[in-house]
Amino acid sequence: MEMFYYLVFGALAAVVAALELGKSVKDRVATSPAFNSFKNNYILVYSLMMSGDWLQGPYVYYLYSQYGFDKGDIGRLFIAGFGSSMLFGTIVGSLADKQGRKRACVTYCITYILSCFTKHSPQYKILMIGRVLGGIATSLLFSAFESWLVAEHNKKGFDPQWLSITFSKAIFLGNGLVAIVAGLFANFLADNMGFGPVAPFDAAACFLAIGMAIILSSWGENYGDSSDNRDLMTQFKVAAKAIASDEKIALLGAIQSLFEGSMYTFVFLWTPALSPNDEEIPHGFIFATFMLSSMLGSSIASRLLARKLKVEGYMQIVFAVSAFTLFLPVVTNSLVPPSSEKGGSIKLGGCLQLLGFCTFESCVGIFWPSIMKMRSQYIPEEARSTIMNFFRIPLNLFVCVVLYNVNAFPITVMFGMCSIFLFMAAILQRRLMVVSDLHKSTKAVEMNAEDEPLNP
After folding, report:
1. 94, 274, 331, 453 - which has most CB atoms within 10 Å?
2. What is the pTM of this model?
């Protein structure tokens, strides 16, 4: 069965290489040198930020266990991180809009570096503080950088269509290639070099510091609404009013929460799904395979966006496929007789599920640049970071509930629930397309009416 992993990884690598090398003229967009310089600068910074995040992932749980904490203690630490992101996310998002997105990005670096330093302490309270800082940093990572990019892109007068290029490349590298390299580098530092599980966190702090230096030296500042008379509560009201008054924004927020909630739940469930009887599976290699699948998805998304296909249209298919792939564990557990043998290599059901999970990760790779594109179209600039963090409130609440009750339900029930959420996302995406088309047609009629000369 070990050959199975290499076959899957090799096949994915071949497809990704073929897609990237085989791009036609239709898949490439002519851009200016000024934009290319701007894009490359952002992608470099984004890749450094994501490397600081990805380096920590493989060893968080292991480090806590090495300090002697049990599953319950570790679970509470994880809940603290998501809870912190939920409670403080809207505040830091509003501050980013008001005080400046560049400052918010620098704050992300400082906050996450401090969180990395706390990993040197075996004291539970210090580690809890680190998780709270990490939750705040996560809120900034997934709002401030994108908000800065969109505002700066528009301020420089670049073609709005070119945003898709930056989004796709950032996800392809930051959420794909960087994740693979970071996982291997973390393993090299902790195991091969013998520095222990805290070494990847020190490396993450170094990458974050380098990224912060680039931001300070090369980025300009931009704001949402920097009016002096707008306090945090006013910013919250503006964001809440925008969501309540515009169905497109509300639908987009619901779609994002449903998909990302299912995605983060999958992160916790894939290991027990592939090894229900403690089968020996190569976790690091499987993680790298998932990231390669995500690269495949982002490569597909770059082609779809370059050809100006309607995002609202093809994302319906992506969500439907995602719903099927996470329902696969329910199907395989029903059709493939479960084995009672403990240990050993991955079973047939696990192999089928692994293929499905790789497909799901490809959908994740399509999702990120596509949702970024839709957010750039629908979310108003004056409260962009605030609204984006409003979207993360139900997401973080959902993940906290799942973590708290992860042992209360069978794994098939959890996957079935995620599948239902993704199917709901497909339905809401259909509604978003209808509302968007109706809004565009109404606006076109109004513009034509204004252009018509008055009858004598």
Report:
1. 94
2. 0.81
First-last CA distance in the chain: 83
